[in-house]
Design brief:
This protein is α+β, with helices and mostly antiparallel strands. The protein contains 24 helices and 26 strands. Among the domains are: 112 residues, Alpha-Beta Plaits (2-Layer Sandwich), CATH 3.30.70.100; 85 residues, Distorted Sandwich (Calcium-transporting ATPase, cytoplasmic transduction domain A), CATH 2.70.150; 117 residues, Calcium-transporting ATPase, cytoplasmic domain N (3-Layer(aba) Sandwich). The chain starts with a strand and ends in a 10-residue tail after the last helix.
């Protein structure tokens, strides 16, 4: 069976870097499903045991000029990005760093010190080639023309050697069409036709372009590293009433930590003692502090503002909210958008076509019309430099990576470019009611016991059925029983009945808490009780029936208020030209009461399979985004073109569906669509910019208007412009409209 293996690869500056690694590894026996994520420096692939060994994989990558190490280990001479918990770091603050042969920047799990561009190998090459070029110009002014030309030849060759070596290595691995190969041919050809000065200038501009690409790519990675740095490096562990400082990565589930005012919370956990305001903006993007007390969950990375808290650890460091968000962002880069896959296919044909065109330009006019060989070879060489599709290939992943980072900082998670593209095309948004459009914290408003049954008996049976359930209605019933001092009757064999309610063996036999419709179908409630149900539902309340076989014990009415921002979110969605529908298993009267206040259409009394059918119906009018709690709505979330789980950072919210909203804010639904639309607009700008510049300089190079140095400036300039345009998305706040 193939095994999935992962590495960290450093030194990648542009899309051609990841493409080289992918193509080189795909040729190796037993290697499959190669995925190289440029922005997160992640290599993953499947490896058949007994074929190519991990050492051969690492050797192939190093031959291409990059550094590599197994995921979670430090990369030689360059610190690798490590998820919290994947590798224990020393407790001290020192981070060793060195410049790398392939250029780039050093970073560690909890700190990042950027290597200055001039300290990298590529930066030193820029300085060297620039100095040689300047010296050659000075030498030309002070000496005879032939001697000056040799100075330019020397400057060109010294700068071209490392580029030619990388081109040769790629050629040995079956990759003739690389930017290094094109550069080597173009600069070498320019030397042969006597254009040494321009060849030296092209080599210098190419080196400058590589450094700029590296700096731009590094800026795009900062957002992800900033997430990792949110988790403090140490924690105050409580043992036997005393505290001691330990690495946060070493915390284990069940341990108790003390969080002082001003400290960051070191792990996901549950407050055991203390009440304090927490700044959760680093995790969820929520700007206002939230008061948290005993029994409530807290996120690693949140800042304790007011009072000391004792927190019980509930997740290991490698599985806390921050780590899971980082993993999702990393995995999202691998889930490529359809547009990105099309661009990749297009670029595979684009470069060979341009190379053939360059050969025709160089050969046909001299052979067919007796034109000057040097002139047309020069123009053909200029076309070669236009042939690199770097700007085009990076146009999509750069925009998506920036948008994913911008969304993650505001609690909006999307699992890849495909999800983002689908979200941008959304035409209709479907909401679950309970816990999504409403607060998800209903309270019991009415108890109507049947004749001969007391309120305490009604609550005791209902609490026995719902004991252990985490459904919002169950929590409300259990809360009312606890407040009234009514203990739940002993029960066993409890199970949920999706879309209906719950059942359990309570006391002497089976008991149910179900919807009135189900109880009526079973003949458990009287006509008078049916009338009571109707009256309560007309008031916008949800009613459940507590009954045993053929006998109702009474009715319990509950109310769940809409979230404060629900109406505003619906207005935003409608202003964006989207349809909005509420899907609920609740009764039509309660659904109408909630929907009427929010101004949305609704479909009520839906079982999970009915919600599935509703999503299919809505999809006839265009792509549908379904937003639910990620548990009861799982089938509908999977059926929708984009399924969004809203759950405050729970495992379900992060790992179910295609996207997640961490802040429990309905207004983040239009924000997510706004972010996706902005990303797709940015991609269209990038593709237009990349192709437009290529088209312009393709024509001007053939006509002889522009030469070699303009061609390389256009190629590297387009790559840098596209990347910088994508980085604008990092400053986008989609919650503003």
């Amino acid at each position: 069976m193939p095994e999935r293996r992962e590495w960290t690869v450093t030194g990648m500056d542009c899309a051609s870097c990841s493409g080289k690694i992918t193509r080189a590894l795909e040729r190796l026996p037993g290697v499959g499903e190669v995925s190289v994520a440029l922005m997160t420096e992640r290599l993953s692939l499947t490896l058949v045991p007994g074929t190519t060994g991990p050492e051969a994989i690492e050797g192939a990558v190093r031959k291409l000029g990059f550094q590599i190490a197994p995921r979670g280990q430090a990369v030689a001479r360059k610190k690798a990005f490590v998820l919290p918990g994947q590798a224990l770091q020393p407790a001290h603050d020192h981070v060793a760093e060195e410049a790398t042969p392939s250029g780039g920047h050093a970073h560690a799990a909890h700190g990042h010190r950027e290597t200055r561009w001039f300290a990298t190998a590529k930066g030193r090459l820029v300085i060297l080639t620039g100095a040689l070029l300047g010296a050659a110009w000075i030498f030309q002014l002070l000496s005879a023309a032939p001697t000056g030309q040799w100075a330019f030849v020397l400057a060109c060759l010294i700068g071209l050697v490392p580029v030619a070596l990388r081109a040769t290595q790629a050629l040995r691995m079956g990759q003739p069409f690389t930017i290094e190969g094109l550069m080597t041919i173009a600069a070498g050809g320019a030397l042969l036709i006597g254009a040494a000065e321009e060849a030296a200038l092209v080599v210098f501009l190419f080196a400058v372009g590589e450094v700029l690409e590296g700096v731009a790519a590094e800026q795009a990675r900062q957002g992800i590293r900033a997430l990792a740095n949110l988790v403090p490096r140490t924690a105050l562990l409580e043992v036997g009433g005393r505290t001691r400082t330990v690495p946060a990565e070493a915390l284990e589930i069940g341990q108790m930590v003390l969080v002082r005012p001003g400290d960051r919370i070191p792990a996901d956990g549950e407050i055991v003692q203390g009440t304090s305001g927490l700044d959760e903006s680093p995790v969820t993007g929520e700007s206002l502090p939230r008061s948290r007390g005993p029994g409530e969950m807290v996120f690693a990375g949140s800042i304790n503002i007011e009072a000391a808290l004792r927190v019980r650890v509930t997740h290991e460091a490698s599985d806390n909210t921050i780590a899971r968000i980082i993993r999702l962002v990393e995995e999202a880069e691998e889930a490529r958008a359809p547009t990105e896959r099309f661009i990749d296919r297009f670029s595979q044909y684009y470069m060979p076509v341009v190379i053939v065109l360059a050969a025709l330009v160089a050969l046909v006019p001299p052979l067919a019309g007796g034109a000057d060989w040097a002139t047309w070879i020069y123009r053909g060489l200029a076309l070669l430099l236009i042939g690199c599709p770097c700007a085009l290939v990076i146009s999509v992943p750069a925009s998506i990576a920036a948008a994913l980072s911008a969304g993650a900082r505001r609690g909006l998670l999307m699992k890849g470019g495909g999800v983002m593209e689908a979200a941008a095309r959304t035409r209709h948004v479907a909401f679950d009611k309970t816990g999504t459009l409403t607060r998800g914290a209903p309270v019991v408003t009415d108890l109507l016991p049947a004749e001969g049954v007391t309120e305490a008996e009604l609550l005791a049976v209902a609490a026995g059925v719902e004991a252990g359930s985490n459904h919002p209605l169950a929590r409300a019933i259990l809360g009312r029983a606890d407040t009234a001092g009514v203990p739940a009757l002993p029960s066993h064999g409890a199970r949920a009945l999706p879309g209906i309610g719950a059942e359990a063996v309570v006391g002497e036999g089976l008991a149910w808490v179900t919807t009135p419709r189900h109880a009526t179908a079973g003949g458990s409630i009287t006509a008078e009780a049916v009338a009571d149900v109707a009256a309560l539902e007309d008031q916008g309340k949800t009613v459940v029936v507590v009954h045993r076989k053929d006998r109702a014990l009474g009715l319990i009415a509950l109310r769940d208020e809409p979230r404060p921002d629900a109406a505003e979110a619906v207005q935003q969605l409608r202003a964006m030209g989207l349809g909005v529908t509420m899907l609920t298993g609740d009764n039509p009267r309660t659904a109408a009461s909630v929907a009427g206040g929010l101004g949305v259409e609704f479909r009520a009394s839906l079982l999970p399979e009915d919600k599935l059918t509703a999503i299919r119906d809505l999809a006839r009018g265009g792509p549908v985004m379904m937003i639910g709690d990620g548990i009861n709505d799982a089938p509908a979330l999977r059926q929708a073109q984009v399924g969004v789980a809203m759950g405050g950072g729970t495992d379900v919210a992060l790992e179910t569906a295609d996207a997640a909203i961490l802040r429990d804010r309905v207004a983040d639904a239009p924000a997510m669509i706004r972010l996706a639309r902005a990303a797709m607009g940015n991609i269209r700008q990038n593709v237009t910019l990349a192709l437009g510049l290529k088209a312009v300089f393709l024509v001007t190079s053939v006509l002889g208007i522009t030469g070699l140095w303009i061609a390389i400036l256009a190629d590297t300039g387009a790559t840098v412009l596209v990347t910088l345009n994508a980085l604008r998305l990092l400053r986008l706040d989609p919650t503003r409209h």
